[in-house]
Amino acid sequence: MENLGVIKSQTESANNYLGISRRGKHKIFIGMCPGVGKTYRMLEEGRRLKQEGLDVVIGLLETHGRQETQERATGLELIPRKVLSWQGKTFTEMDVEAIIERNPQLALIDELAHTNVPGSEREKRYQDVEVILQAGIDVYSTVNIQHLESLNDVVFKISGVVVRERVPDRLLDEADEVVVVDVTPETLQQRLKEGKIYAPEKIDQALQNFFQRQTLTLLRELSLREIADSVEEDVREMQQDYCNIQERVLVCISTYPNSVQLLRRGGRIAHYMNARLYVLFVADPNRFLSKSESLYIETCERLCQELPGEFIRIESVDIVGTIAQVVQEKHITQIVIGESRRSRWQTLLRGSVSQKLMGKLATVDLHIIANTP
């Protein structure tokens, strides 16, 4: 809360000083890992805009000794860094106040997830960027997918690396534009071998660890999916009659013994479609589950997590209405449900859940799985 207060106070001061009320626009260049060309692409666009007459400066640049990146910065004004002392050592950080005083139309700022030297006015560089945006200056910035807070555990499972510097996911949501800078794992490995990413003494170690082909492939998929999901959310907000781009499978389970088989079948369908998986259990609030039934539902929940999927439990007497509500909230495209256990006479009198769903959810595909002993 203190950091937010400091940011608000500083941004208000900047706005008062400059007489600006418009918040700057933020464009983020994101990639699967170092070396894909995020900084190069940012500088390239900055140079193009400068040639078109825009006032562009480099607020902070990290070339990591990459010659091609350094060459792309040629001709762009560079704001000098601020010199700071900490524990008897000298460090440099981005000079936010100097950028605001210079007041360009666009500032290029590298490595959004960077942690500032202790004693800096703000802890993280992304907080510095927010101050600059509030001052009415547009910002282009760069970040790797592994720095997103919500993906930290996933990245660790993929790479075995604990990422210490992280940024909140809201930065992508709040950005005016997000650009994925993408290359194939093979291209990235070749760049590494040619010495375009790390110094020669670090190449072999990188190839054996973070830059293994399998790791790069999974990180690439992670970054593309993350942005695809973000784009899908934007489309959903713009359109009332939303058309799902990604399939979403909802498996409706009950306390019947065939629910585990039903869940596995739904998991296979989701896997074949490369779809998100959701599992729904509608619990009757007027009925207590027996011990065996409770254990059964817990088994289904554990299996859902392993597949993996999202388990949803809702108390309601209206099964069809609850399913329809979840379908709408989660933008479900496929429903997997077990065959009705009612007798033919009961079905004629009352109708089955599947029949009611077909009448209520005409645009959703319904998979009715036969009961097996």
UniProtKB/TrEMBL annotation:
Q: State the Gene3D superfamilies in the record.
A: HUPs, P-loop containing nucleotide triphosphate hydrolases
Single GO cellular component term: cytoplasm
Domain of life assignment: Bacteria
User: What region holds the Signal transduction histidine kinase osmosensitive K+ channel sensor N-terminal domain?
Assistant: 22-231
Q: Name one Pfam family in it.
A: Usp
Q: Do you know which CDD domains this protein is assigned to?
A: USP_KdpD-like
InterPro entries assigned to the protein according to its UniProt record, in alphabetical order: Histidine_kinase_KdpD, P-loop_NTPase, Rossmann-like_a/b/a_fold, Sig_transdc_His_kinase_KdpD_N, UspA
Keywords, A to Z, come to: Kinase, Transferase, Two-component regulatory system
Q: Which residues form the UspA domain?
A: 247-360
Q: Which GO terms describe its molecular function?
A: phosphorelay sensor kinase activity
Instruction: Report the SUPFAM superfamilies cross-referenced here.
Output: Adenine nucleotide alpha hydrolases-like
Protein name (record): Universal stress protein
